[in-house]
Design brief:
Elements: H1 2-34, E1 40-44, E2 47-54, H2 66-89, H3 94-120, E3 147-152, E4 156-159, E5 171-174, E6 178-179, H4 181-196, H5 198-214
Antiparallel strand pairs: 1-2, 2-3, 3-6, 4-5
Helix pairs in contact: 1-3, 2-3, 3-4
Length: 215
């Protein structure tokens, strides 16, 4: 019975990761090859498709050099994949496997941009739409490609009151980051992880400590 659960949850993880990657890459390639950089399509007053690219982490954040960030992502993906494999061998809930799979798939989705987009696309500009080029002749080298973002939800657009120090009279937008499907999967997965899987989080900490001690 336990073996059957491991197999079924393993298959579920594989299907979910594959589905997220396909959806994420299809959206990104469609935007990359049909939008000029900075182009925006108004869907509703609180939802736009806005094509931007970034060198950083989720939601355009940047803390590291691009190459360092890409290598960090590869290490993180390897660690998460290893951990999922360990969890499948232990007592676990299917929901926990789903959450971990969402986080892993989102991370892989963004690293694929960094790994290959610079090799297979020419550069996007505000005046031209990018297209496919022969492999290796694109706008950047391996691991130096830019991540494609497109979802923009300015749910509240107003101005700061005049009495607010330094910001009075300036525009205020909530929610301002532009993100992609992979970012959304990572964020939802992390929120669910902290809300519903605190016990598993403690087990994760113990697993990491044991792994470090063996080294």
């Amino acid at each position: 019975m336990k073996t059957n659960k491991i197999l079924s949850d393993g298959v579920l993880a594989f299907i979910l990761i594959t589905a997220i990657l396909l959806i994420d890459q299809v959206i990104k390639i469609e935007v990359k090859t049909h939008f000029s950089l900075g182009e925006s399509v108004h869907i509703t007053d609180w939802f736009y498709i806005s094509f931007v690219e970034n060198n950083g982490m989720a939601y355009g954040m940047t803390f590291f050099n691009k190459l360092v960030l890409s290598l960090f992502r590869l290490v993180a993906i390897t660690a998460i994949g290893w951990y999922i494999r360990q969890v499948l061998k232990q007592k676990h809930t299917t929901g926990y496997i789903v959450v971990l799979s969402m986080i892993l798939a989102g991370a892989v989705g963004n690293i694929l941009d960094s790994m290959f987009y610079g090799l297979i696309f020419n550069a996007s500009t505000p005046f031209s739409v990018a297209g496919f080029v022969p492999f290796g002749t694109g706008y950047a080298s391996f691991l130096q490609g830019k991540v494609v973002d497109m979802f923009y939800f300015p749910m509240i657009v107003t101005t700061y009151p005049s009495w607010v120090p330094f910001k009075g009279g300036e525009e205020f937008i909530f929610f301002s980051p532009v993100f992609n499907f992979a970012d959304a999967c990572i964020s939802v997965g992390i929120v669910l992880f902290f809300l519903f899987y605190r016990q598993e989080m403690e087990q994760l900490s113990d697993t990491i400590k044991r792994a470090l001690k063996r080294k």
